[in-house]
Specification:
Largest sheet of chain B: none
Number of strands of chain B: 0
Order of helices and strands of chain B: HHHHHHHHHHHHHHHH
Strand order of the largest sheet of chain A: 1-2-3
Oligomer: heterodimer
Helix content of chain A: 40-55%
Order of helices and strands of chain A: EEEHHHHHEEHHHHHHEEEHHHH
Shape of chain A: globular
Structural class of chain B: mainly alpha
Radius of gyration of chain A: 21 Å
Distance between the termini of chain B: 78 Å
Chain lengths: 367, 410
C-alpha cells in the first residue's frame, strides 16, 4: 500500500476563540505547517463610511467610537482633527492638552489589552490579561469621571472637547501615573523574562523593514521592524511638539519585538501625560461654532498616531452640513495585509500569536 | 481495636469488617471475593467522585484567585456546590452529533476514555495494608502504565469521529505527544522500582521510610512533567489548546458525552496526583494524623501544584513539546536510571547494614540533578524547530497544493 500525504484546508474563523472578532483565515496546512493563507475580510462590515455621508459632521463623532471600540478616544481625536482642518477651526489650547491627555491614557489602555490578548493567544489562560485589565479599569474610571462613559466616550467635539475635567480628575491621574510605571515593570518582569514566552515569540513572524514599508504598515508593528516613524514626531499635530518623549524601536521585527515596543510605548505615554498635566493651561475648552457646521467646498486629510498606527480621516465637503465623502485610513486593515507573508512556514500556534501581535479590532478593519 | 485505630485507617477497616462479616455466614470463598470486589468498587467511587468535585471547585476557585477575581460564590457556601450546578446544566444539554461524523465511534470514545482512567484506581493504595488496595497486583506499576495509555485511544476516536479538522489536529497531537512522553515517564518510574525492588504498589509505599522525592528528585521532575502532558494541562495542553484549535478533540461534543470527557480529565488528574503521591511522597504514610488525612493532603498538594502551573504558564508549541521530551527528558531519564542503579548496587554491596536509610545519596542526587539540568539545558538542548521552508514541503508532496490556493512563497 502506498501512503501519501495531502495538504488540507482549514477555516480559522469567523467563529474562533482567538480571531479578535469575526475574522476568517482560509489556511492551507501541511500537517501543522501553514503553506498558504488567505484572509477573508468583511464579516463585521457595517457601512460606517456610507452612513456618515447622511449625517452632519457633529453627528458622525459617535460613529468613530465604534471603529476601534477599545480605543475610542483616539478615533474621536483623528476625526475631529480632520473636520477642523477642513473648516479651518482653531482649537483652544486647554482643549488640545485635554485631548492629548485622553489620547495617551487611551493608548496605555489599548496596549494593555493588546498585550493581554497576545498572552491569551499564547495560551496563558487569562491570567496576564486579567492583571492588565486591572490597570485598564483605572483608566476607564478616569474617563468615566470626565465624560460619564466607560466604553464609547464620544468626548471630543469639533473645536474642542465636550466637558472640562472635574476637580478630582487631576489628583486621580497623578496617582495613576505614579503607580503605573511600577505595574509596567511588573508585567515586564513576569512576561519578558519568561522562558516559554521567549521560546514562543523570539524570531516568530519576522516582518522585514522593506516589506513593512512597501505594505504601508505603521505603528508599533513598523517600529518593531526597526523604522523610527511616529507621526507624533514626524508630523507633529496638536501640541505634541511641546513634549519630551522617545520613540521606542526594536530591530528584529518578530512577535517578541512587537510586544516589547508596546511595553516601551506605555512608558513613553506615561511621560507625555505627566508633562501635559504640568503644562495644562486654564481657559476655554471648546471654540465657538455655529450649530450646523458648513465647511467650504474642498477636502482635507488629517492623520494621527493611533495606538495601532497611522489613523487618518479623509473628508470631502460639498458645502453642505454633511460630508460628501468620508474615508477612514485604517491602520489595522493595512497592518493585517502582511499577515500572509509573515506567517507562511510557521505552525498553527504561531499563526495565532502572529495574528495576535498585529493587534487588531475587527470593527476598525471592516468598518 | 478501639475507635481511634478504626478511624485512622478507615477505608481498609470498613472493607475488612465487611469481609469478616460475610465469612460469618459461611458463604463460599468465590462469592466472598465477588462481594468484596463490589464493596471495594463502591468505596473507590465514594472516594473518587467527592474528590473530583473538590478538584473542580478548587480549580475554579483557586484559578480565580490567581486571576484577581472572586470565582464561583453563589452556589452554596464558598461556591462549593458549583460542580453540582455544572453537572445539572451539562446533563440537560442536547447531545449534538456532527452530520457526517461516525455515530458509533463518537459514542464509544468518551466511554473508552472514562473506563481507561477509572481502571487505574484498582491498584492505587488508598490505605494501609492489603485491604487498602482494591487489587494489590504484584505488577501494579506496570498495570498503571499500560492502562493509562488506553485513554489516548478514546481521544483519537473522538477526534476521528467528529469529522472536524480541529478535532483531528487535536487528536493527532495527542497521539504524538503521548507516545513521546510515555517513554521518559516509564523510565523515571524505573528509578523508584530499582530502589524498592518490586512493582507492587503497597510495597512501594511500605519501603518509603522517607519520601522518594528526596532520593529521586530527577525522577520526580520527569514523571511530573510527563504526567502533566498526559493530563493535557497547561503548559502542555496541546490537545485542547483553546486559542489555537478551539477545544481540540472534544470540539464537537456536548451534553453528557462532553461531561464524560470532562470528568475523565479530572479523574485522570486525581489518579496522577495519587500516583505522584504514592511513588514520590510516601503515599498514605505520615506521623500522628489519620492515614486518609495524609493521603488526601498529599493528593491535594500535588493537584494544587498542577493548578498553579495552569494559572501561570504559557503554552508551548507542539514541536517544542516533542523536542522537550526526546531531547531533554529522555536523556535525563536514562541518566537517572543509570545513576540510581549504581547507587543501589553500591548500597547493597558495600554499605548495607551501615544505616537503615541511604541519606548520603539525598545530597548526591540533588547535586547531580541540578548539575545535569543546568548542563543539558545550556549545552546540548535546543527547543523545537521554527520556520519551515514551504518550498521543500511542496517538493515532497505528491499532490501539490491544489488549484485554488496560490503558489506558496519560499
Amino acid at each position: 500500500m502506498e501512503l501519501k500525504t495531502q495538504p488540507f484546508m482549514l477555516n480559522i474563523g469567523p467563529h474562533h476563540p482567538s480571531t479578535h472578532g469575526v475574522f476568517r483565515m482560509r489556511v492551507t496546512l501541511d500537517g501543522e505547517v501553514i503553506v498558504d493563507l488567505e484572509p477573508v475580510f468583511g464579516y463585521l462590515h457595517r457601512g460606517i463610511e456610507k452612513l456618515a455621508e447622511g449625517r452632519t459632521y457633529t453627528q458622525n463623532i459617535p460613529f468613530t467610537d465604534r471603529l476601534d471600540y477599545i480605543a475610542s478616544m483616539i478615533n474621536n481625536f483623528a476625526y475631529v482633527r480632520a473636520v477642523e482642518k477642513l473648516a479651518g477651526i482653531n482649537v483652544p489650547e486647554r482643549a488640545e492638552y485635554l485631548r492629548v491627555i485622553m489620547a495617551e491614557l487611551m493608548r496605555i489602555a489599548r496596549h494593555l489589552l493588546g498585550i493581554g490578548f497576545l498572552t491569551n493567544d499564547l495560551g496563558a489562560l487569562m491570567t496576564p490579561l486579567l492583571y492588565m485589565w486591572r490597570e485598564r479599569e483605572k483608566i476607564v474610571d478616569l474617563f468615566e469621571m470626565v465624560c460619564g462613559q466607560r466604553q464609547t466616550y464620544n468626548y471630543m467635539r469639533i473645536g474642542g472637547v465636550s466637558h472640562d475635567i472635574p476637580p478630582e480628575f487631576l489628583p486621580a491621574v497623578k496617582k495613576f501615573l505614579k503607580e503605573m510605571p511600577a505595574f509596567i515593570d511588573e508585567y515586564d518582569q513576569l512576561l519578558a523574562e519568561n522562558e516559554i514566552l521567549l521560546a514562543r515569540t523570539k524570531g516568530v513572524g519576522i516582518l522585514p523593514a522593506d516589506l513593512a514599508i512597501n505594505s504601508s504598515v505603521s505603528g508599533p508593528m513598523l517600529r518593531a521592524s526597526g523604522i523610527k516613524w511616529d507621526i507624533r514626531k514626524a508630523d507633529p499635530y496638536s501640541v505634541y511638539d511641546r513634549f519630551d518623549f522617545d520613540i521606542p524601536t526594536a530591530t528584529a521585527g518578530d512577535t517578541y519585538d512587537r510586544y516589547r515596543v508596546r511595553i516601551e510605548e506605555m512608558r513613553q505615554s506615561v511621560r507625555i501625560v505627566e508633562q501635559a498635566i504640568e503644562q495644562l493651561p486654564p481657559g476655554e475648552i471648546c471654540a465657538k461654532l455655529p450649530a450646523l457646521l458648513r465647511p467650504a467646498k474642498g477636502d482635507a486629510y488629517a492623520r494621527i498616531e493611533a495606538s495601532t498606527g497611522e489613523l487618518g480621516f479623509y473628508l470631502v465637503s460639498d458645502g453642505s452640513i454633511a460630508p460628501y465623502r468620508y474615508r477612514v485610513r485604517s491602520p489595522e486593515l493595512l497592518n493585517l495585509t502582511v499577515l500572509r507573508d509573515i506567517s507562511i512556514g510557521w505552525k498553527i500556534a504561531d499563526l495565532i500569536i502572529i495574528f495576535g501581535s498585529i493587534d487588531i479590532a475587527l470593527a476598525e478593519v471592516d468598518r | 481495636m478501639n475507635a481511634w485505630h478504626y478511624f485512622v485507617n478507615l477505608f481498609p477497616n470498613v472493607r475488612a469488617d465487611f469481609v469478616s462479616w460475610l465469612q460469618g455466614f459461611g458463604l463460599p470463598s468465590s462469592l466472598i471475593i465477588f462481594l468484596d470486589s463490589i464493596i471495594g468498587i463502591t468505596l473507590i467511587l465514594l472516594f473518587v467522585f467527592p474528590m473530583v468535585m473538590l478538584f473542580i471547585w478548587m480549580e475554579r476557585r483557586f484559578i480565580a484567585r490567581f486571576q484577581l477575581r472572586p470565582g464561583p460564590n453563589r452556589c452554596g457556601p464558598l461556591g462549593l456546590l458549583q460542580p453540582v450546578a455544572d453537572a445539572v446544566k451539562i446533563l440537560v444539554k442536547e447531545l449534538i452529533m456532527p452530520a457526517k461524523g461516525d455515530r458509533l465511534v463518537h459514542w464509544v470514545a468518551p466511554i473508552i476514555m472514562f473506563f481507561a482512567v477509572f481502571m487505574v484506581f484498582a491498584v492505587l493504595p488508598i490505605g494501609n495494608g492489603s485491604m487498602g488496595v482494591f487489587a494489590d497486583l504484584n505488577i501494579g506499576i506496570l498495570y498503571i502504565v499500560a492502562i493509562s495509555s488506553l485513554a489516548i485511544i478514546g481521544i483519537f476516536m473522538a477526534g476521528w469521529a467528529s469529522n472536524n479538522k480541529y478535532s483531528l489536529i487535536g487528536a493527532m497531537r495527542g497521539v504524538a505527544q503521548l507516545i513521546s512522553y510515555e517513554v521518559p515517564m516509564v523510565l523515571s518510574i524505573v528509578g523508584v522500582v530499582l530502589i524498592v525492588g518490586s512493582l507492587q504498589m503497597s510495597e512501594i509505599v511500605g519501603k518509603q521510610t522517607v519520601p522518594f522525592i528526596l532520593l529521586q528528585p530527577m525522577g520526580f521532575l520527569i514523571y511530573f512533567i510527563g504526567a502533566i502532558t498526559e493530563l493535557n494541562r497547561s503548559p502542555m495542553d496541546m490537545i485542547e489548546a483553546d486559542s489555537e484549535i478551539v477545544a481540540g478533540y472534544f470540539t464537537e461534543y456536548s451534553g453528557m458525552k462532553f461531561a464524560m470527557f470532562y470528568l475523565a480529565e479530572y479523574i485522570n488528574a486525581l489518579a496522577v496526583a495519587i500516583i505522584v503521591a504514592t511513588l514520590f511522597l510516601s503515599g498514605w504514610k505520615g506521623p500522628f494524623l489519620p492515614v486518609w488525612f495524609w493521603f488526601v493532603l498529599k493528593v491535594l498538594a500535588v493537584f494544587m501544584f498542577i493548578l498553579w502551573m495552569r494559572a501561570t504558564l504559557i503554552r508551548l508549541r507542539i514541536d517544542q513539546v516533542m523536542a522537550f521530551s526526546w531531547k531533554f527528558l529522555l536523556p535525563m531519564a536514562l541518566i537517572n536510571v543509570f545513576i540510581t542503579a549504581g547507587e543501589v548496587l553500591v548500597w547493597d554491596t558495600w554499605m548495607s547494614g551501615w544505616q537503615s536509610f541511604p541519606w548520603p545519596f539525598i545530597f548526591v542526587n540533588f547535586a547531580i540533578a541540578a548539575g545535569l539540568i543546568v548542563l543539558w539545558s545550556k549545552f546540548f538542548f535546543r527547543l523545537g524547530g521554527g520556520r519551515v521552508e514551504v518550498g521543500r514541503l511542496r517538493a515532497r508532496n505528491s499532490q501539490g497544493y491544489g488549484a485554488d490556493s496560490q503558489a506558496p512563497v519560499s
